[in-house]
Inverse folding.
């Protein structure tokens, strides 16, 4: 394996992980499903353990409990061996519940992933989550009006401004 192909594979794996975050946060379940190999498994602690397709179904049901989610990737480490790879992905995850008990849940977690490149495309074959820390607080509505300086709020679906502003990010294109 050349240094250039190793770099290209690691970049493709980083994009795969970024697409996962976008798919969950924008509720693009077709995109999320496309990231998992047919024979994949996912373990999200005691919340979920099963196949990739079943995980997508689980996410599509449970994410509706949240007004907003944001999954940020802060560090990535990948080991590539031909058409298989492993990764440890450090993440900060934000979840805000709906009124009346608006709560912000922020966690630091890591994904332990296994990947396979099939037909030239990297996909998850395994994803297991480890929770490193968690914080839960009431929503401070003033922070959204005073600090954000009038920025339009993100939306958890196809009405998010990214779809209007970034034509290449339309559903089905990524």
């Amino acid at each position: 394996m050349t240094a250039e192909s190793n770099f290209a594979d690691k970049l493709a794996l980083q994009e795969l992980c970024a697409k996962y975050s976008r798919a969950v946060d924008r509720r693009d379940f077709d995109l999320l499903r496309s990231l998992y190999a047919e024979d994949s498994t996912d373990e999200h602690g005691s919340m979920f353990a099963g196949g990739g397709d079943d995980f997508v179904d689980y996410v599509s049901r449970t994410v509706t409990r949240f007004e907003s989610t944001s999954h940020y990737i802060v560090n990535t480490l990948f080991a590539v061996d031909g058409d298989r790879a492993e990764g440890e992905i450090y993440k900060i995850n934000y979840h805000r519940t709906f009124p009346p008990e608006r709560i912000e849940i922020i966690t630091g977690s890591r994904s332990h992933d296994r990947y396979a490149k099939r037909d030239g495309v990297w996909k998850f074959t395994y994803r297991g989550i480890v929770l490193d820390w968690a914080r839960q607080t009431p929503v401070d509505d003033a922070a959204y009006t005073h600090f954000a300086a009038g920025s339009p709020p993100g939306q958890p679906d196809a009405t998010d401004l990214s779809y209007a502003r970034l034509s290449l990010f339309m559903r089905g294109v990524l």
Observations:
- The two ends are 27 Å apart (CA to CA).
- DSSP finds five helices and six strands in the chain.
